[in-house]
Amino acid sequence: MTTITDRVWISAGAHERLRREFDTLRELCASAPGDQDADENAIAVRRARQARIQRIHDLLLNAVVGEDPPDDGVAEPGMVVTVRYDDTGDVETFLLGVRGAERGDLEVYSVQSPLGAVIVGARAGERRTYGLPNGAELSVTMLTAVPYGLHTDESDAAALDMPNR
């Protein structure tokens, strides 16, 4: 059974970029000399490319592409989440998605990250606590969760309203 944390959500743009990278890496591996004809550095590069190809393949195989989750305010992959750190009052907005696949100025947390894992399933006003690597605990309150497509539409609209400087 697939759960919310098993889903791999990526935007359509990230899917296209990963697909192009996958194709390029496969071409490079196909045209590279075999391990018996290469030096240690070339062998290491080839193995790194093959590992990246496998990682991209796994992402693309299990991806939910650009399909926004329901606009129900529940934190899940594909949602832009805003949280408040309870100790400091600082507010952070981030995308629950695949780290390294998305581009832009929006921070991305995977559902396997400590914050991503604890915030999945939260609704506005819910407080969650998670452990830091140093053993301390950090509490956050989920403020909002908006589907990525709605968030980018709102951001684009706001950018259009800004006067040129």
From TrEMBL:
The keyword NADP does not apply. One of its GO terms (biological process) is regulation of DNA-templated transcription elongation. One of its GO terms (molecular function) is translation elongation factor activity. This is Transcription elongation factor GreAB. Residues 72-142 form the Transcription elongation factor GreA/GreB C-terminal domain. Pfam families: GreA_GreB. It comes from the Bacteria. Keywords: Elongation factor, Protein biosynthesis. The keyword Glycosyltransferase does not apply.
